[in-house]
Each structure stands twice: as structure tokens, then as C-alpha cells.
Amino acid sequence: MIGRHFWPLGAFDAAGHLMQLATMLSAAGFQVDVVTPRQANVWSERFQFREFNVHRPIRMFRTGWSSRGDRSISKYIKSLKEWICENRCSPDLIYCDQAREESIAVVEAAKQLGIPSVVRIAGNGSASDLFETKGRRNVKRCLQAAVRADAVVVNSGSVQRQLIIDGFDGAPTCRIPIGVVRGAEASSNLKSDLRGAMAKINGDLHVFDTGVVVLSVERMSDQSGLMTLVESARVLSERLPNLCYWFIGDGPKRDSIYSYLKGEGLRQMMAMPGSFGLLSDVFQAADLMVHAGDDGFQNQVPLAITHRLPLVIANGETAREFFAVSQQEVQEQIASGQFETGIYWFDPARPRTLRIAIETITQDLDRAEAKATELRRTMQTVRDASASLEQYARLFRRLIDAKRNDVNDLP
After folding, report:
1. pLDDT for 247-280, tens place per residue?
2. Rama region for 167: left / alpha / beta (φ>0; ψ in -120 to 50; rest)
3. pLDDT band (50, 70, 90) for residue 407
4. How far apart are the first and last CA of the chain?
5. pTM of the model
6. How many Å apart are CA 135 and CA 91, to the nearest integer?
7. Residue 130: its pLDDT value, please?
8. Is the pLDDT of residue 357 over 60?
9. What is the 3-class SS of the chain, one letter each residue?
10. Residue 410 has what pLDDT?
11. Range 286-302 average pLDDT
12. Which of 106, 201, 256, 347 has the fewest Cβ atoms nearer than 10 Å?
């Protein structure tokens, strides 16, 4: 299994998806090895995570690609392909969790080794692999390589339709939805205990007994939509002085967000602790989560649902598709302020609707948690993570068996 990032870290949603999928496949009896680049020479080239190995053989530079030399895209792809072909893992199948530069190396290496390859088109909307951004000049080449894989996994109908629009209608696609894991029930005292433990590790995470924690787990960039919450924080705190803000993640806007909130007089009410290796404790210690961007629906939002966290969600195409609701339904809920489905929608262009959604939750936290429990029950029915895992398992076994049969039929 190959991906650009492995640790969830809050900033990279696809990394959380890769970690969860690798863990579940390993528990299901597959022998799993994960390959991901390292971003510093001091990072170890190999370590064990739970029951499988994680390899970091190739250095990737955080400052970006160069046109030539060791920092070039072509050098990275070539080095990764050579490592896959020469390592001792002896894979039966190679899976790439994103249609990025790694997918080029994966498809070429798999053909050289005579084994099947699978590439997932990750993300949705503006966070999709299909969306060309400023930092990805290589998008078309990556997609052309991805569709040459033995199977192309898509997580939603919109991604599959966009593939066809982009001219890749002949791709061997397989739709596997993002699933919601069935988590264990938490005790009533767990939230208080977790907050106390976190405060001992990082004083910024201290919360008074009457405090209400507003959680945001998004990459700190202009594209994430995080600024909707940041710019509303002061007005929210004037109306609800017991609010605390936890901003989990990293990104180019981190320093400017910190300076802005500090200038608004919110230094004592906010925490920006960076990244967490595992986000479960953070979700269980918070009272609600605000999510405004297209990124996050591969792992972060599903995890929040698993942990029964009331969700304040921006009205957007990606969010509506994930929760299977119409534009009209969402607009009616925003206009009326009645959120019977357990999702508290808001309009990013109208900050007042964000404040209404948060105020509705804080007025009756027990009722909001009950609605979050009902939402989890519903989403686990329509998006069962076990069913998604079984689809991956059947796809992998079918491709491996087909490739072996082809080899056996050779004269």
C-alpha cells in the first residue's frame, strides 16, 4: 500500500484513510506493507505500526519540486519505482491510495513485476485528485497513469462522473464508498477525564467545567474553508463566553490564524496544539465540530460521526452528497433553524448561520449528543465500514486470482 502521507496528523485527511484501511486489511488477514516518503533525513526508513511495517525509503522535500536534480518529480517517481521492484516484500498486489505522482511509479512497477495494481481517486470537489491546483502541474500525467491500473477505486458518484467528463470513461472503475466505523461506546466520565489528561500535557487545552469545546480538524489553508470559523470566533465568544476553540492541524495559514485570533483577544480561549497521531481522544473530548471545506470526508468527518460528535457542516456539494441530502432540504433547515437530522448546516457566505448552528447546540448539549448518536446509527447503516472493507477484499482477491490464472495459462 502506497500513499503520500501515512499519519493522520489532522492536516492530511487522505493519510487517515490510508492508516485506517491498512489497519482494517491487516486485521482481516491480509499481509500489509505501507510505503510512504519521509520528509527529513533523521526520520527512520522503517518502523512497525501495529501489526505491519511502514517503509519510508525515499526522501521528499517539503519545499516543493524542482525542475531537475534530486528534488525533481521524475527523480522521485524513478526512485520509488526502483525501490518497489527491488525490495523484498514480494507483493501480490500494489495499491496506491491517491492518484498522485506515486500512482505513476505504482502502475509502471506493477507491470514490470507482473502483478495487479489498484489506484484510488481520492477526495471530493476541490480536494479531489481530479481538481487541478496551483501546486500540481503534473495532474494530467498522474491521471493518465492511474487509469492504466487494473482497477481504479472511486468513493462517490460525482468523482466517477467527473472521470467521464475528463475523458477517462474507459477506466476500470470500482465504486467503494467511504465507510463509518462502528466504535465502542464511551463512558459518561470519559470526556472530563480526557480533558484533564490533555491539559496536563498541554496547558492550552485546559477547559473550565462550564467550557464548551468547538473543534476544527482541517488543513490550515485558504482552500479549506477554515477562515469561516476563525473570522466568526470573536462574535461567537461575545454571545457565548464559555466557548473554547481547538484548531487541530497545520498548513500555510497557521501563523496568520494564530496572530488574527490573538489580536481579537481570544488567546486564552483557543488552542492550536499542532497534530495528533490518533484523533480519537480529541473527538471524544470536544463538544462539537465545525467543518467547512471539501477535504475531510475521507476520514475526519466519518471519525467524528463514529465518536457521536455534533457536526456543524457548511452547505456544499461534497457535504450534501456525503450525507445524501438535497440542496432544498439543507436550505430549509438553515432558514428555519430547525436541525432535526442531527447535522447543523450553515451557509459559508452568511456567518450568522454558523453562529445560529453553534448556539442551537450549546443551548442543549444533551439533545445535540442524542441527535449525534442517531446520526451515527443512520450513517453506519448506509455507510458501513465493514461493507466497504469487504468490497476492497473481494476486489484484491479477484485481481490476484485473475493474474495468477493468466500466468498459469501461459505455454
Report:
1. 988 888 999 999 999 999 999 999 998 767 678 8
2. left
3. low
4. 32
5. 0.91
6. 32
7. 87
8. yes
9. CECCCCCCCCCCHHHHHHHHHHHHHHHCCCCCEEECCECCCCCCCEEEECCEEEECCCECCCCCCECCCCCEHHHHHHHHHHHHHHCCCCCCCEEECCCCHHHHHHHHHHHHHCCCEEEEECCCHHHCCCCCCCCCCCHHHHHHHHCCCCEEEECCHHHHHHHHHCCCCCCCEEECCCCECCCCCCCCCHHHHHHHHHHHHCHHHCCCCCCEEEEEECCCCCCCCCHHHHHHHHHHHHHCCCEEEEEECCCCCHHHHHHHHHHCCCHHHEEEEECCCCCHHHHHHCCEEEECCCCCCCCHHHHHHHCCCCEEEECCHHHHHHHCCCHHHHHHHHHHCCCCCCEEEECCCCHHHHHHHHHHHHHCHHHHHHHHHHHHHHHHHHCEHHHHHHHHHHHHHHHHHHHHHHHHCCC
10. 45
11. 93
12. 201
Cα–Cα distance measured from residue 71 to residue 350, given in angstroms and rounded to the nearest whole number:
43
Helices 385-408 & 13-27, crossing angle to 10 degrees?
Answer: 70
Please answer whether residues 102 and 96 qualify as being in contact, where contact means their C-beta atoms are separated by less than 8 angstroms. yes
Gyration radius (Cα) of the chain, Å:
22
Task: Enumerate the β-bridge partners of residue 270.
Answer: 245
Per residue in 54-90, pLDDT tens?
999 998 876 666 767 777 888 999 999 999 999 867 8
